Automatic annotation (TrEMBL):
It comes from the Eukaryota. InterPro entries: ADH-like_N (IPR013154), ER (IPR020843), GroES-like_sf (IPR011032), NAD(P)-bd_dom_sf (IPR036291), Trans-enoyl_RdTase-like (IPR047122). This is GroES-like protein. Gene3D superfamilies: Medium-chain alcohol dehydrogenases, catalytic domain, NAD(P)-binding Rossmann-like Domain. The keyword tRNA processing does not apply. SUPFAM superfamilies: GroES-like, NAD(P)-binding Rossmann-fold domains. Pfam families: ADH_N (PF08240). GO terms for molecular function: oxidoreductase activity, acting on NAD(P)H. CDD domains: enoyl_reductase_like. Belongs to the zinc-containing alcohol dehydrogenase family. Monomer.
Length: 355
């Protein structure tokens, strides 16, 4: 048996649809008919020349129906609607008719969210836990004890890129855990929304005085969560603000210049060399894929924590735009083109299998 998969075949080359073998799930593996997916900046980074070994199947998230299970699968059964973040092998990618992955990367879709909404969640929900716990050193215990108040409840945590997908999930999750001094940096049109997600103060990154405003209003900021990684418009201002002992977590890759419809991007990875950091600033570049180094997160994050916080309404999915096209290849290409042109405060989602 074979199925269709969308491939990136070279830097900024048109995507291609190819047939690949469909493996049978074994052990704790599940085969999912992918119905919805999203195109993430990660897909654009790969398609435009970073992080990819071509040819490369696109998509690290999947939303669909379980169609076959291995003999050690315990929680899921054929017919379940599931969503997850999957990334280990090309078989697990979302931009193809079927994904075959381990059960622990999948959760049942809660009754209060739709499939396209589910497509906005897994990658960036996972990223928040992986950034906050190891890179910022802040606890997010699960289950959250009754009346839990974190030690750093009043410490300022600056979310640069609050209206990005990661930023919106970070605000909601940190707020749920009782971090009460969340400073969000995003464009002004999203400020009211960011306050509903937990931001206590908002700033506009297009304001040329943003650094002096933050220095004047907030003073020392112990924690910086850079959801953008733009050398000129997030990292350099953060480097002006960060002092001895502060933690700075930057989502990789570092973007020296972003992809545009006419220009290839320039990326980097060395977070210590990218700016003139003050002595004693603790800077970490975040690669989400390492989250499985934490045994508890590996076991619980996707099957249990993610659906529980969605079902409880603690975390709301991102706003989204449905990308249309006559077939899966055209939808994938259109989503990539739209992302290259720039998005604001929304995820780009599209139908994979024509069911
Ligand atoms: N390394 C990892 O493991 C990992 C994991 C997940 C994500 N990431 C990376 O994290 C980045 C964000 O991903 P995402 O899915 O959250 O992106 P996204 O939702 O597509 O981000 C779009 C938003 O970025 C905001 N933005 C752009 N430039 C900004 C700036 N200079 N300052 C503040 N906000 C800015 C825009 O805000 P406004 O609309 O307010 O203008 C826009 O709404 C991507 O580069 C992605 O690859 C890395």
């Amino acid at each position: 048996m074979h199925h269709a998969a969308v491939f990136s075949v070279g830097p900024r080359a048109p995507l291609e649809l190819r047939q690949v073998p469909t493996p049978t799930p074994v052990g704790d593996q599940v085969r999912v008919l992918n119905e919805w997916t999203s195109t993430q900046p990660f897909d654009l980074h790969k398609a435009d020349g970073a992080l990819a070994q071509y040819p490369d199947i696109m998509g690290d998230g999947s939303v669909g129906i379980v169609v076959e299970v291995g003999d050690q699968v315990k929680r899921l059964q054929v017919g379940d609607k599931v969503f997850g973040y999957m990334w280990k092998t090309s078989q697990e990618r979302g931009h193809q008719t079927y994904a075959i992955t381990q059960e622990r990367f999948l959760a049942k879709i809660p009754s209060n969210i739709s499939m396209p909404e589910a497509a906005t969640v897994p990658t960036n929900f996972v990223t928040v836990f992986h950034t906050v716990i190891p890179a910022l050193g802040l606890p997010l215990p699960w289950p959250k004890p009754d009346s839990y108040i974190p030690t750093s409840t009043d410490d300022a945590i600056l979310i640069w890129g609050g209206s990005s997908s990661v930023g919106q999930y970070a605000l909601q999750i940190l707020s749920y855990y009782g971090y009460n001094n969340l400073i969000a940096v995003g464009s002004a049109r999203h400020h009211a929304h960011l306050k509903t997600l937990g931001a206590s103060k908002t700033y506009d990154y297009s304001d040329s005085n943003i650094v002096s405003q933050l220095q004047r209003d907030i003073g020392n900021i112990p924690y910086f969560f850079d959801c953008i990684g733009s050398v000129s418009s997030s990292i350099l201002p953060i480097a002006q603000l960060a002092n001895n002992g502060n933690h700075v977590a930057i989502l990789l890759p570092l973007i020296f210049s972003p992809p545009t419809p006419t220009a290839a991007p320039k990326y980097g990875y060395d977070v210590t060399a990218v700016a003139d950091w003050a002595s004693g600033v603790r800077v970490t570049g975040v690669r989400t894929h390492a989250y499985e180094d934490n045994e508890q997160l590996a076991r619980l994050l996707q099957p249990e924590i993610m659906p529980a916080l969605l079902q409880a309404g603690v975390v709301r999915p991102n706003r989204y735009r449905v990308i249309e096209g006559k077939d899966v290849l055209e939808r994938a290409q259109n989503a990539l083109t739209a992302l290259r042109e720039g998005v604001s405060g929304e995820k780009l989602v599209w139908k994979v299998a024509d069911v």
